[in-house]
Amino acid sequence: MIIVCPLNKVQPLIDRHGAKHVVTLLAPDTPHDAPQGITPGRHLKLYFHDIVQPMEGHVPPGAGDAEKMIAFFQDWDRKDPMLVHCWAGISRSTAAAYTALCMFRPGADEEELAFELRQASPSATPNRLIVSLADEVLGRNGRMVRAIEKIGRGADAFEGTPFVLRP
C-alpha cells in the first residue's frame, strides 16, 4: 500500500497505517521534522522545488532524483505500507506515486494507471517534469507523460486529501 499525503498529515498517517518507508519530496528550504519510527535507510529525502521548467533561484527535479526514487521503490519489499509526501500532497507526491504504479505494474497501460490515480485523488496534478524523468528512466517512451497529460490538471485545492494506492 502507498499512502500519499501533504506534509502536515505525515506522522498521523504513519502511526495509523504502520508505514515503515517514507519518501519526502520537499523544497530545499522547507523546515520539517523527521518522521518518528522510520529508520534512516527507509526514508528517502529528495529536495527540489515543485517546478516543471528551470526558474531562477529554484532547484528543479533532476534525473538523479528520479533514479534515486525508482531505486528506493525497487528496494521496498511491499510488506509494510509506504508513505509518500510533499508539501501539499498534490504534485510531487502524486508524480512519485504514479511512478510507483507504473513500476510495479509493468504490463499495465499507463493511461489506465493515470485514471486510477485520478479516481483516487481528484486534486492530483502530478509534476510533469518528475513524470518525464521517471518515464525516461523506466523506458516508457513518453507513455507516462502522455497519460498524465490526458487526465489533465486536478481539481483546485490548497491541500490534497490523503489517499491510498495499491501497487
UniProtKB/TrEMBL annotation:
* Biological classification of the source: Bacteria, Pseudomonadati, Pseudomonadota, Alphaproteobacteria, Hyphomicrobiales
Report what the protein is called. Answer: Tyrosine protein phosphatase
Q: Which organism does this record belong to? A: Aestuariivirga litoralis
- Read off the SUPFAM superfamilies from this record: (Phosphotyrosine protein) phosphatases II
Checking PROSITE patterns in the record gives: TYR_PHOSPHATASE_1 (PS00383)
InterPro entries for the chain: Prot-tyrosine_phosphatase-like, Tyr_Pase_AS
